[in-house]
Design goal:
The structure holds two protein chains of two kinds. By secondary structure, chain A is mainly α. Chain A folds into two domains: about 1-120, no CATH class; about 125-180, Winged helix-like DNA-binding domain superfamily/Winged helix DNA-binding domain (Arc Repressor Mutant, subunit A), CATH 1.10.10. Chain A is built from nine helices and no strands. Chain A has helices spanning about 5-15, 20-40, 45-65, 75-90, 105-110, 115-120, 130-140, 145-155, 160-175. In chain A, α1 (about 5-15) crosses α2 and α3 (about 45-65) packs across α4 (about 75-90). Mean pLDDT of chain A is about 75; it is low at about 95-120. In chain B, about 70% of the residues lie in helices and about 0% in strands. In chain B, α5 (about 95-110) runs antiparallel to α9 (about 185-210), α7 (about 125-150) packs across α8 and α7 runs parallel beside α9 (about 185-210). Chain B is elongated, with a radius of gyration of 20 Å. The chains are: A mainly alpha, B mainly alpha.
């Protein structure tokens, strides 16, 4: 068993018992690997499109994490989810993948600066949420507030915030697979 | 505007773990729904007379065992498909065994029966009964199975849906065969085959739609 398998499966196992910190750590470790996989197949999407696909894969990992059989290895599951979502994302973008020839230089240049990926913004998913969901999502993400703090600020119970957050993620997952 | 780092924060905040996927429980539930459908049907319409005696004849037993074999291969395949990257325990090439036996039975009956006896059972009523009941009884269990499979993550949704349809229709046809008195393989291989194929196709179409993720 590789150390990555051991480390990641321990983190996700802890996450599946409700350990949000272990879960965040797991996702932080997975993301750079996804950023390595996605451009290999989707260089034509450009850095922004690639980061959208990375986000779609992360959402799929999140919404399907219960399908991992905890008695089996994690990495085959993770790679299968990633492969499926990457193929799916590129298939759906089929038509828009064809860039004018002049843009190729820009794409290649952007690829040479991988750090640019990390600071890029995506309006695709969050931009389509309703105002309240987006406010909750923003408060949790941008301001780093806990669900309890967000609840206090928006005069909602923590449970209601959690439910709204969960629904917003499910909605983003549906948006990401082009069903809304 | 959302950075990937923010998305990670959002996902981690949604940390209440979902209930684990339990394929065996789904299998159990769909088998119960299939059994209830078949039992209600047999209870209303009755099992054929002297069923045990009839079953001693190989071509009558095959009418039950062949669709049962399709079910035993396709259903586990569909359920394992719910877990990405899971090793398949059942290989689809095993489907060649019941399909091959069915084709062999059909040919054997065609060769051994006199021409006038080959398709004597075919009538609008018998076809409606056979096709209508096998496919009709399959609809509810297939719907239940596909809805439960949505919690999974099948990498090939159409194939997973097709195997769900094949599994359900095979099981239902096996139950239906206890009622059916058409023991001519030319009849039952053809028309059970058409009904099962139709439900398999329906499963594929519905799966392509319902099991996308």
């Amino acid at each position: 068993m590789t150390s990555r398998e051991a480390e990641w499966s321990a983190l996700l196992r802890a996450a599946m018992e409700g350990d949000g910190r272990a879960y965040a750590r797991f996702l932080v470790l997975v993301t750079p690997v996804l950023r390595g996989i996605v451009p290999a197949r989707g260089w034509a999407l450009g850095p922004e499109g690639q980061e959208d696909v990375v986000q779609e894969v992360l959402i799929a990992i999140h919404t399907k994490r219960h399908t991992w059989d905890q008695s089996a290895a994690l990495l085959p599951w993770l790679y299968a989810v990633t492969r499926h979502k990457v193929v799916d994302a590129f298939r759906r973008r089929g038509a828009s993948v064809h860039l004018p020839i002049d843009d190729y230089a820009d794409v290649l240049e952007a690829e040479a600066v991988p750090d640019a990926l990390a600071v890029r913004d995506s309006a695709v998913l969050i931009g389509q949420l309703d105002a309240r969901s987006a406010a909750i999502v923003r408060a949790v993400s941008l301001d780093g507030q806990s669900t309890a703090e967000v609840g206090a600020r928006l005069q909602m119970s923590e449970g209601a915030v959690r439910v709204a957050l969960h629904r917003a993620i499910q909605r983003m997952a549906r948006l990401a697979k082009g069903m809304e | 505007m959302m950075k990937t780092e923010d998305l990670i924060g959002i996902l981690a905040a949604d940390s209440v773990p979902p209930p684990m996927l339990r394929p065996k429980r789904i299998a159990g539930l769909v088998l119960v729904v299939m059994a209830v459908a078949v039992t209600l049907f047999l209870w209303s319409f009755g099992i054929r007379d002297s069923v045990a005696q009839a079953m001693m004849q190989p071509q009558v037993a095959a009418k039950t065992l062949l669709p049962l074999a399709l079910c035993a291969i396709a259903l586990p395949f569909a359920l394992v498909q719910m877990r990405p990257g899971a090793a398949q325990v059942v290989r689809l090439r095993w489907l060649a065994v019941p399909l091959g036996v069915a084709a062999g039975l059909w040919l054997w009956a065609f060769v051994t029966l006199p021409p006038e006896a080959r398709f004597v059972e075919v009538s609008p009523f018998s076809l409606t009964e056979c096709l209508g009941l096998i496919s009709g009884l399959s609809l509810l269990p297939l719907g239940v199975l596909l809805l439960m499979m949505r919690r999974g993550a099948s990498a090939a949704p159409m194939r997973a849906g097709a195997m769900a349809g094949l599994g359900v229709a095979g099981g239902i046809a096996a139950g239906y065969s206890l009622f059916c008195v058409m023991d001519n393989p030319l009849f039952y291989v053809t028309w059970y085959g058409v009904a099962i194929a139709a439900i398999t196709a329906l499963g594929a179409v519905a799966g392509g739609w319902l099991l996308r993720w």
